[in-house]
Amino acid sequence: MDMDTHNIEELEAQLKAYQDERERIKQLMGQIGGSSDVKRDKIVNWVFIVLIILLFTFDIARHFLHCGNIPLPPLFSIEIGILLVSIKIIWMINRQSKVDHFQFWILNSIEFRINNVSRQLNEVQSSIENAGIEEKKEK
Questions:
Q1: b/e map of 48-85 (b: 16 or more CB within 10 Å)?
Q2: What is the pLDDT of residues 58-73, one digit of tens each?
Q3: Ordered DSSP codes for the chain
Q4: Most CB within 10 Å of its CB: which of 29, 41, 59, 111?
Q5: What is the pLDDT of residue 44?
């Protein structure tokens, strides 16, 4: 009966440790890519889209409607459009590097856990073998 109580307590401790770790991972995920980042990403995307559409509209108005009162040089809108697209690409690369870092951290954590479980399994296996050898010696 004492052994069953010990096993139940051990399982409860492992469950609590698992729940604590799960909460910690949730918090980390929220810091890296939480809901505030999604909102900010949408705002940044819309700003880029609006700026590109405005530049495109000004350029179309100048060339097809022959509006001469737009104060931009002829190639300026193309240059600004290329600059905006370049900034967006750099920003996307930065975001992807954060995601890659987080994935690496998760994989590294999983590998650490697997190695830990493997070591514990080897210890249990060797203790079982040692117990079997001792029983044979006693007989």
A1: eeeebeebeebbeebeeeeeeeeeeeeeebeebeeebe
A2: 777 777 877 667 676 7
A3: -HHHHHHHHHHHHHHHHHHHHHHHHHHHHHHHH-HHHHHHHHHHHHHHHHHHHHHHHHHHHHHHS------S-TTHHHHHHHHHHHHHHHHHHHHHHHHHHHHHHHHHHHHHHHHHHHHHHHHHHHHHHHHHHHHHHH-
A4: 59
A5: 85
**Tokens 């001792």 sit on residue:** 134
**Contact (Cβ atoms closer than 8 angstroms) between residue 81 and residue 56:** yes
> What's the pTM value of the predicted model, to 2 decimals?
0.53
pLDDT bucket at 103, cuts 50 / 70 / 90: confident
Q: Which residue has the higher pLDDT, 27 or 91?
A: 91
- Predicted local distance difference test score (pLDDT) of residue 124: 87
CA dihedral 131, 133, 138, 139 (to 10 degrees): 120
**And the tokens for 65?**
């409607």
